[in-house]
Amino acid sequence: MHKKVIVLLHGFPGNHRGLLDLANDLGDYRFIIPDLPACGFSEPLHKKHNLKNYSDWLNDFLEILSVEEVIIIGHSFGSRVALIFTNHYSKKVKQLILIAPVLKVEGLLDRIASLYFEITEMLPEYLQKIMISNGFGKKLGDMIIFKSANQRIHTEIIIRDIEEIKKLSPQVSNDLFDEFHKFSLIPFGKKIKIKSLIIAGELDRVAPLYSIQEFSQQLSGSTLEIMKNCGHLLPLEKPKITANIIRNWIEGVHPSTIDIIP
Asked: Which domain holds residue 167?
Protein backbone atom coordinates (compact mmCIF):
# COMPACT_ATOMS: atom_id res chain seq x y z
CA MET A 1 0.00 0.00 0.00
CA HIS A 2 1.40 3.38 -1.00
CA LYS A 3 1.80 6.02 1.70
CA LYS A 4 -0.24 9.19 1.51
CA VAL A 5 1.76 12.11 0.16
CA ILE A 6 2.13 15.35 2.10
CA VAL A 7 3.56 18.39 0.32
CA LEU A 8 4.85 21.14 2.61
CA LEU A 9 5.38 24.67 1.27
CA HIS A 10 7.56 27.08 3.24
CA GLY A 11 7.16 30.79 3.87
CA PHE A 12 9.12 33.72 2.43
CA PRO A 13 11.99 34.23 2.82
CA GLY A 14 12.75 30.64 3.61
CA ASN A 15 13.45 27.17 2.32
CA HIS A 16 12.62 23.55 3.08
CA ARG A 17 14.74 23.51 6.27
CA GLY A 18 12.14 25.52 8.16
CA LEU A 19 9.58 22.69 7.84
CA LEU A 20 11.78 19.67 8.59
CA ASP A 21 10.97 19.59 12.31
CA LEU A 22 7.25 19.77 11.54
CA ALA A 23 7.51 16.89 9.04
CA ASN A 24 9.49 14.76 11.51
CA ASP A 25 6.60 14.98 13.98
CA LEU A 26 3.74 14.35 11.55
CA GLY A 27 3.95 10.58 11.24
CA ASP A 28 4.21 7.91 8.55
CA TYR A 29 3.71 9.70 5.23
CA ARG A 30 5.70 10.35 2.10
CA PHE A 31 6.90 13.94 2.46
CA ILE A 32 7.77 16.30 -0.37
CA ILE A 33 9.29 19.57 0.85
CA PRO A 34 10.56 21.60 -2.11
CA ASP A 35 12.44 24.85 -2.07
CA LEU A 36 10.02 27.15 -3.87
CA PRO A 37 11.41 28.82 -7.02
CA ALA A 38 14.04 31.48 -6.23
CA CYS A 39 14.41 30.11 -2.68
CA GLY A 40 16.95 27.72 -1.19
CA PHE A 41 18.54 25.63 -3.95
CA SER A 42 15.75 26.23 -6.50
CA GLU A 43 16.28 28.47 -9.51
CA PRO A 44 13.98 31.46 -10.10
CA LEU A 45 11.06 31.14 -12.47
CA HIS A 46 11.62 32.30 -16.02
CA LYS A 47 8.59 34.55 -15.68
CA LYS A 48 6.97 36.78 -13.08
CA HIS A 49 7.01 35.44 -9.55
CA ASN A 50 3.30 35.51 -8.80
CA LEU A 51 0.92 32.98 -7.23
CA LYS A 52 -0.45 31.59 -10.49
CA ASN A 53 3.04 30.89 -11.82
CA TYR A 54 4.09 29.32 -8.51
CA SER A 55 1.04 27.05 -8.53
CA ASP A 56 1.72 26.04 -12.14
CA TRP A 57 5.31 25.26 -11.17
CA LEU A 58 4.08 23.06 -8.32
CA ASN A 59 1.74 21.19 -10.66
CA ASP A 60 4.59 20.53 -13.10
CA PHE A 61 6.83 19.47 -10.22
CA LEU A 62 4.29 16.91 -8.95
CA GLU A 63 3.73 15.58 -12.46
CA ILE A 64 7.46 14.96 -12.83
CA LEU A 65 7.30 12.97 -9.58
CA SER A 66 4.18 11.10 -10.81
CA VAL A 67 2.20 12.27 -7.78
CA GLU A 68 -1.53 12.38 -8.49
CA GLU A 69 -3.05 13.31 -5.12
CA VAL A 70 -1.63 15.17 -2.11
CA ILE A 71 -2.34 16.57 1.30
CA ILE A 72 -0.93 20.06 0.96
CA ILE A 73 0.37 22.12 3.88
CA GLY A 74 1.42 25.73 3.42
CA HIS A 75 2.91 28.15 5.91
CA SER A 76 2.64 31.93 5.44
CA PHE A 77 3.53 32.60 1.78
CA GLY A 78 3.43 28.84 1.21
CA SER A 79 -0.21 28.92 2.27
CA ARG A 80 -0.92 31.46 -0.47
CA VAL A 81 0.64 29.14 -3.04
CA ALA A 82 -1.27 26.17 -1.58
CA LEU A 83 -4.55 28.07 -1.77
CA ILE A 84 -4.12 29.11 -5.40
CA PHE A 85 -2.87 25.63 -6.34
CA THR A 86 -6.00 24.13 -4.76
CA ASN A 87 -8.17 26.59 -6.66
CA HIS A 88 -6.62 25.68 -10.03
CA TYR A 89 -5.84 21.99 -9.44
CA SER A 90 -8.51 20.90 -6.97
CA LYS A 91 -8.63 17.30 -8.22
CA LYS A 92 -5.06 16.81 -7.02
CA VAL A 93 -5.70 18.01 -3.46
CA LYS A 94 -7.14 15.57 -0.93
CA GLN A 95 -6.88 17.89 2.07
CA LEU A 96 -5.71 21.50 2.49
CA ILE A 97 -3.90 22.79 5.58
CA LEU A 98 -3.04 26.48 5.92
CA ILE A 99 -0.72 27.61 8.72
CA ALA A 100 -0.75 31.35 9.49
CA PRO A 101 -2.05 32.14 5.99
CA VAL A 102 -1.28 35.69 4.85
CA LEU A 103 -4.60 36.53 3.19
CA LYS A 104 -4.37 40.30 2.98
CA VAL A 105 -1.90 42.91 4.15
CA GLU A 106 -2.97 46.19 5.77
CA GLY A 107 -2.39 48.53 8.70
CA LEU A 108 0.43 50.77 9.95
CA LEU A 109 3.20 48.17 9.63
CA ASP A 110 2.06 47.49 6.08
CA ARG A 111 2.33 51.19 5.22
CA ILE A 112 5.85 51.34 6.71
CA ALA A 113 6.91 48.26 4.71
CA SER A 114 5.28 49.62 1.54
CA LEU A 115 7.18 52.90 1.81
CA TYR A 116 10.42 50.97 2.43
CA PHE A 117 9.96 48.87 -0.71
CA GLU A 118 8.81 51.82 -2.83
CA ILE A 119 12.06 53.61 -1.98
CA THR A 120 14.02 50.41 -2.64
CA GLU A 121 12.51 49.94 -6.11
CA MET A 122 13.79 53.37 -7.19
CA LEU A 123 17.41 52.47 -6.42
CA PRO A 124 20.04 50.76 -8.62
CA GLU A 125 20.02 46.97 -8.32
CA TYR A 126 23.13 46.71 -6.14
CA LEU A 127 21.61 49.18 -3.65
CA GLN A 128 18.27 47.37 -3.77
CA LYS A 129 19.96 44.20 -2.56
CA ILE A 130 21.63 46.07 0.29
CA MET A 131 18.34 47.65 1.34
CA ILE A 132 16.38 44.40 1.21
CA SER A 133 18.94 42.40 3.20
CA ASN A 134 20.01 45.02 5.73
CA GLY A 135 19.58 45.00 9.48
CA PHE A 136 16.68 47.45 9.65
CA GLY A 137 14.36 45.23 7.65
CA LYS A 138 15.34 42.17 9.63
CA LYS A 139 14.86 43.89 12.98
CA LEU A 140 11.47 45.21 11.89
CA GLY A 141 10.39 41.76 10.77
CA ASP A 142 11.74 40.18 13.95
CA MET A 143 9.76 42.61 16.08
CA ILE A 144 6.56 41.78 14.19
CA ILE A 145 6.64 38.00 13.81
CA PHE A 146 8.70 36.41 16.58
CA LYS A 147 6.86 35.59 19.82
CA SER A 148 8.83 32.66 21.24
CA ALA A 149 10.92 33.09 24.39
CA ASN A 150 13.39 30.49 23.11
CA GLN A 151 16.52 32.48 22.27
CA ARG A 152 18.22 29.57 20.47
CA ILE A 153 15.33 29.15 18.03
CA HIS A 154 15.13 32.92 17.71
CA THR A 155 18.78 33.18 16.68
CA GLU A 156 18.59 30.24 14.26
CA ILE A 157 15.60 31.72 12.45
CA ILE A 158 17.19 35.16 12.14
CA ILE A 159 20.44 33.72 10.73
CA ARG A 160 18.53 31.47 8.31
CA ASP A 161 16.37 34.35 7.06
CA ILE A 162 19.34 36.66 6.52
CA GLU A 163 21.13 33.94 4.52
CA GLU A 164 18.04 33.43 2.37
CA ILE A 165 17.40 37.13 1.78
CA LYS A 166 20.98 37.69 0.62
CA LYS A 167 20.56 35.04 -2.10
CA LEU A 168 17.39 36.58 -3.52
CA SER A 169 17.44 38.91 -6.49
CA PRO A 170 15.76 42.28 -5.88
CA GLN A 171 13.38 41.58 -8.78
CA VAL A 172 12.03 38.44 -7.09
CA SER A 173 11.58 40.31 -3.80
CA ASN A 174 9.77 43.13 -5.57
CA ASP A 175 7.56 40.72 -7.54
CA LEU A 176 6.47 38.96 -4.37
CA PHE A 177 6.03 42.16 -2.40
CA ASP A 178 3.77 43.58 -5.13
CA GLU A 179 1.77 40.35 -5.18
CA PHE A 180 1.33 40.37 -1.40
CA HIS A 181 -0.05 43.89 -1.38
CA LYS A 182 -2.24 43.90 -4.47
CA PHE A 183 -4.31 40.78 -3.89
CA SER A 184 -6.54 39.74 -1.01
CA LEU A 185 -7.13 35.99 -0.99
CA ILE A 186 -10.15 36.14 1.31
CA PRO A 187 -12.64 35.91 -1.64
CA PHE A 188 -11.06 32.58 -2.61
CA GLY A 189 -12.65 31.02 0.47
CA LYS A 190 -15.94 30.67 -1.42
CA LYS A 191 -14.21 28.88 -4.30
CA ILE A 192 -12.48 26.14 -2.30
CA LYS A 193 -14.55 23.01 -1.64
CA ILE A 194 -11.73 20.82 -0.28
CA LYS A 195 -11.73 19.68 3.37
CA SER A 196 -9.52 22.29 5.05
CA LEU A 197 -7.72 23.06 8.29
CA ILE A 198 -6.50 26.52 9.26
CA ILE A 199 -4.05 27.04 12.12
CA ALA A 200 -3.66 30.59 13.38
CA GLY A 201 -1.49 32.27 16.00
CA GLU A 202 -3.43 34.40 18.45
CA LEU A 203 -0.71 37.10 18.48
CA ASP A 204 0.12 36.97 14.77
CA ARG A 205 0.53 40.48 13.34
CA VAL A 206 1.45 39.31 9.82
CA ALA A 207 -1.60 37.08 9.41
CA PRO A 208 -3.97 38.66 11.97
CA LEU A 209 -6.65 36.50 13.51
CA TYR A 210 -9.57 38.64 12.33
CA SER A 211 -8.65 38.16 8.65
CA ILE A 212 -8.27 34.39 9.13
CA GLN A 213 -11.62 34.19 10.90
CA GLU A 214 -13.25 36.13 8.06
CA PHE A 215 -11.70 33.74 5.56
CA SER A 216 -12.63 30.57 7.47
CA GLN A 217 -16.28 31.61 7.56
CA GLN A 218 -16.30 31.55 3.76
CA LEU A 219 -14.40 28.28 3.47
CA SER A 220 -17.04 25.57 3.60
CA GLY A 221 -16.31 22.67 5.94
CA SER A 222 -13.14 24.22 7.34
CA THR A 223 -11.73 23.76 10.84
CA LEU A 224 -9.99 26.68 12.57
CA GLU A 225 -7.49 26.01 15.38
CA ILE A 226 -6.04 28.95 17.31
CA MET A 227 -2.71 28.61 19.13
CA LYS A 228 -2.71 31.04 22.03
CA ASN A 229 0.32 33.17 22.89
CA CYS A 230 1.87 32.35 19.49
CA GLY A 231 2.85 34.54 16.56
CA HIS A 232 3.50 33.91 12.89
CA LEU A 233 6.21 31.24 12.93
CA LEU A 234 4.15 28.38 14.34
CA PRO A 235 5.87 25.44 12.58
CA LEU A 236 9.32 26.78 13.46
CA GLU A 237 8.66 27.81 17.06
CA LYS A 238 6.20 25.07 18.03
CA PRO A 239 6.65 22.20 15.52
CA LYS A 240 5.49 19.39 17.84
CA ILE A 241 2.28 21.11 18.86
CA THR A 242 1.55 22.24 15.29
CA ALA A 243 2.16 18.69 14.05
CA ASN A 244 -0.12 17.27 16.73
CA ILE A 245 -2.98 19.54 15.61
CA ILE A 246 -2.47 18.51 11.98
CA ARG A 247 -2.14 14.81 12.75
CA ASN A 248 -5.29 14.78 14.89
CA TRP A 249 -7.24 16.59 12.19
CA ILE A 250 -6.09 14.26 9.41
CA GLU A 251 -7.00 11.27 11.57
CA GLY A 252 -10.41 12.73 12.41
CA VAL A 253 -9.74 13.93 15.95
CA HIS A 254 -10.69 17.58 16.42
CA PRO A 255 -9.20 19.12 19.58
CA SER A 256 -10.50 22.38 20.98
CA THR A 257 -8.52 25.62 20.93
CA ILE A 258 -4.88 24.99 21.88
CA ASP A 259 -3.40 26.95 24.76
CA ILE A 260 0.33 27.63 24.52
CA ILE A 261 2.41 28.92 27.43
CA PRO A 262 5.85 30.14 26.23
From this structure: 108-176
